[in-house]
Amino acid sequence: MKFAHIADCHIGGWRDPKLTDASVKAFEKAVDKSISENVNFMIIAGDLFNTALPPVDRLKSAVQKLRHLKDNNIPVYIIPGSHDFSASGKTMIDVLAKAGLVINVAKAEQDENNLKLKFTIDKKTGTKLTGMVGKKGSLEKEYYEALSREELEKEPGYKIFLFHSALTEFKPSSMEKMDSHPLSLLPKKFNYYAGGHPHFVFSREEENFGLIAYPGPLFPNNFKEIEDLERGGFYIAEVEQTDEGYRTSITHHPIQIFNIHKIKIDGDKKTPTEIEAEIKQSIENIEFNNTVVTIRLEGILESGKPSDIDFKEIFDILYNKSAYFVMKNTAGLKTKEFEEINISTASSEDTENKLIKEHLQEIKVSDWGPETEEAKTKQLMHALSFEKQEGETNKSYETRIKQELDRIIEF
Amino acid sequence: MEKGKVISGEYGRIIVRQKSSKDIELGELLIAENDSSKILTQVFDLQYGSQLSDKNLQLVSGLKLEEENDLEMMDPHLRNYTLAFLKPMIDLSPDKTKICKKLPKFFSTVREIKEEDLKFLRSSSNNFFVGNLRSGSKTMDVPISLPGEKVLSHHILIPGTTGRGKSVLMSNLLWDSLDKDYCGILVLDPHDEYHEKLKKKESENLVYYTSKDEPGARSLKINLKSIKPYHFEGVVNFSDPQMQALGIYYKQFGEKWIESILLEKPLQGNVSFREDTIAVVRRRLLHLLGLEFANNQISCKSIFSFQAGESTVSDICSDLRQGNTVITDTSSFSGTVELLIGSLIAHSIFNQYKQMKNNDSKPVISIVLEEAPRVLGKEVLEKGSNVFASIAREGRKFKVGLIAITQLPSLIPREVLANMNTKIILGVEMKPERQAIIESAAQDLSDDDRNIASLDKGEAIISSNFAKFAVPVSIPFFDEFIKKDIKEQDTSKKDFSGMDLS
C-alpha cells in the first residue's frame, strides 16, 4: 500500500500573483507525482487553502486537480487546518467534501462532554483514518483533552491519525515561540501520524505511538521560509505487512517550482551606496532564469537610511536577467539614530505573536486567563481578516463575520 | 484576658507570674501592656515559683504522700505559681510598630494576644502566604504573608525532619503562588508529589513534564545539542583532565561535541589526551545520558535525544518568564540526571536574567531544590562551584532565587545559609541541625533552641529579613487550604465546532 501525505499548501497565501500561482503549481506537481507513483490515497493534513473561503481563481485550479485525483480513483482524506478552519463550519473544505472531491476525516460523535472520533475506512486498502481539526491559537487543545482514547487505541488494523498542530517535544529551536501541544495529547497506537502546521520536515518513530511525520509546506509561505527551506515537499509512504506487524517507510519528495538565489548582506558600518555596489557585484555574471531572488540586509548603517538604497535599479537589473520574482527584507537594517529600536526580522506572524504576548492581560476580558486571551486574540484576528467573497452581499458578509466572532467570543 | 503580671527580669528575659486559673504555653505570644505602652512578647521558658522554701515544700508533699491526711496549704494559689520567661519582640506603640528596645513597666498586665493587636502583620501586594499565626499551640485566624517578590529572590530555606510538614508547606506555597504573576517557579520533583495536588486548581499557569502516561503532560525530551560541558559542574564528578577533554571537544565540534566524543572523532591541532581519559569520559557520558552505541551508531534510550527536544529548555525558561509554575517529574531518573536537568535550566534562565538590561517588570524566578545539600553541600562545593551556588550568592541581584529544602542544613556552608534570607523552620530534633539554623537566622533565635525542637507537625517559625520578628506559624493541611479555591465543575456543554459531528 502507498499513500501520499501533504500538508500546508496554503493555496491563495501569497499576496503577489506570481507567488500565489506557485502554491497552486506546487499542489499540481504533488498531485501529478502521486498519480505517477500509483498511490492508493492522498492525505492532506490541514491548510490546503490559506483561508476558509479562498479566491475563486485559485480554487478553480485546485478543484481541477482534485477532480483529476478522483478520476484516477485516488481518494483524498483531509482535515481543516488553522487557516482553512471556520468555527461556523462555512469552509470550502465542506463544499469540496459535499461535492465528493475530498473526504473530511475529522468526524466525531459528541457524548456529553467527550469527543469520540469516528474512523473513515479506505475501501481499497482497509486503512482506518481519523483526525482532528487545527484551530488558530491552538484551541484544538480542548478537543484533545475531551478525547475518548481507549476505543481509538484498541481499534485493530492499519490506522492513520491526521492532525494539524505543532508538538512541543519535536518543534525545532527556530520555532520555539510557536504554540504547541505535548505529544501526550495525541491518541496512542496509530501506525502513522500525518502531521501539518509547523513548516518543517520531520519524521520520527515514537515508542507507544507510531511514525510521526511532518512533510513541511508544499511551497514556502513567507520570505523567511523561502530563505530557510528554499522548496516545499511531501511524503510518499509505503506500508508493508510483516509477521511483526506493519512497517511504514517514507520518502520525502521535494517540489522545486523555482530556483532560489539568496543574497544576504551585512550592512554594518556601510553606507547605502556601498551596499548597493555590493549587491550589484554579487549578481554580476549570473543569470536568474526561473529564479526567485531574496535580498536580506542587516546591520547598522554608517550613514543614511535603508530607503536611500536604490532598490528599483537593483530589481530592474535582476528582472532584466530573467529573475522570476525579486523580494527584499530590510527590517534588520537600522540607521545609527534608531539602533535602539528593536525590530523583529522574523515573519509577520511571529511579530504579531510577539506583540500579542507583550500586551496580554492589559485589559481584563471575562475570566480569560493569559493563554485563553492569547488564543482568542489570534482567532479574532484571523476571523477579522476574512475578505468579502465575490458575489457576497454586504449583509451576508456581515452576518458571516458576526457568526464567526460570536462563536469565538462565546458571549 | 489577663494571664499574668510582669514581676522582674531583664531585657530579653522578662519574668511574669502566671495567673493560677490560666495556662501559659511555651512559644505563646502575649501582650504586656499598661496605660502608656503595649509590647508583643513570646514565652521561651517556664518555671515553678513558690513563696515557701524548698524544705517546707518537701515537708508538705511528704505529709500528703505518707500521712494521707487532708492537709491543705494556706492560700495555695497565692503561695505556689508558675513563672513564664518572655522575650520582648515588637513595641506596638499607637504611632509606629517597631522593634522593642524597652522593658514593660513593673506589674504590667500580661494578656492573651487578640487579632486586633496584629494589624501590622497584614502586608500589601504580592503576598506570599505561609500559614496562620500560631500562639503556642493555638492557631489564630491571622494569615501570615511575606512580600513574595523579595522573599523569593532572596532565597528560602525550609529545614525540617521527615514528617514535620515540608511537603505540605511546599504544596501550599506552590498552590498559593500558582496564579500570581510576580513569580515563576521551577520544581524538580523527585517524588512526583506536587502535580497531582496542584492540578486540582485547573490553572493555565501549571506546566508539567513527566515520562508517565498522562494526556496533556509534556514528555521531557532534551536535545543533546542543548548540553554544554559547564552543565556538568557540581553535578558529575569529572576529574580535571576529563573536564578539559569535554571543553576541547566542545570548542572544536560545537553543539555536536557529545556525538564527537562518542564517535571518537579525532581532535584537530596539537591536542591530545590519554586514551583512558577519553575512554572514561565516553563511558560515563553513555551511562549518564542513557545512550547506546552499536555498529558505529548511537541510539537514545532516555530523555536525551539527538532529534527531539530542541526547544524544551527554552520552552521551560519561557514559561518561567511568564510567571508559570513548571513541575518536572524526575521520579524515574537518577539523582545525577535530575541535577543535570536542573543545571541546564538553571544556567539558561540565570544567564537570560543576567543579560537583561532591566528585569524590574519580569517575574522573579524561584528554583525548588529538594535535598539541597546534593548541590549546596560543603563537600560538593569544595570540589568546585556550580550554578546553584552562584544563584545562592548573587541570584537576588537578578531576581533568581532558590527554595532549598533539607533535613540537614548543617551540611550547607554557613555563608550559603546566611544568604538564605528567609527560613521557614519546621521541627528539627537534631541539635547540630538546629544550631546551624539558629546561627544563620535573620533574627536572634538563641533562646529558641527548645522551641524549635518542640515544633509539632505543621508548626513552623519564620525567620526572615522581611519579617519584623521570628513569626510562629501553623501550616494548614493542604486539603483544607485549597477548599476556597476549588472551582465548581463546569457543566456547560462543550463546543466542538469545526468537527464533523453529523
Walk me through what this model shows.
The complex is a heterodimer of chains A (411) and B (502). Chain A has a six-stranded mixed beta sheet. A six-stranded mixed beta sheet of chain A has the order 7-8-9-10-12-11, with no helix packed on it. In chain A, strands 15-16-17 form a three-stranded parallel beta sheet, sandwiched between helices. Chain A contains eleven helices and 17 strands. The mean pLDDT of chain A is 89. In chain A, helix 7 runs parallel beside helix 8. Chain A has helices at 17-36, 56-71, 92-98, 141-145, 150-154, 223-229, 272-283, 311-320, 348-358, 370-384, 394-409; strands at 2-6, 41-44, 76-78, 103-104, 108-111, 114-117, 120-121, 128-131, 159-164, 192-196, 202-205, 211-214, 232-242, 245-255, 259-266, 291-300, 325-334. Chain A is globular, with a radius of gyration of 23 Å. The termini of chain A are far apart. Chain B folds into three domains: 2-121, no CATH class; 127-217 and 313-482, Rossmann fold (3-Layer(aba) Sandwich); 225-305. Chain B is 29% helix and 26% strand. Chain B is built from 17 helices and 22 strands. Chain B has helices at 54-66, 76-79, 148-153, 166-177, 194-198, 240-253, 257-262, 275-288, 312-321, 335-355, 373-376, 378-382, 387-394, 414-419, 431-439, 449-453, 478-482; strands at 2-10, 13-18, 29-33, 38-50, 80-92, 97-99, 109-112, 127-135, 138-147, 156-159, 183-189, 206-209, 222-223, 291-294, 297-300, 304-305, 325-329, 364-369, 400-406, 422-425, 459-464, 471-474. In chain B, a hairpin with a 2-residue loop joins strand 1 and strand 2. In chain B, helix 6 crosses helix 8 and helix 9 (312-321) packs across helix 10. The radius of gyration of chain B is 29 Å and the shape is elongated. The model of chain B has no long low-confidence stretch (mean pLDDT 89). Chains A and B meet through strand 5, helix 4 and helix 10 of A and helix 9 of B.
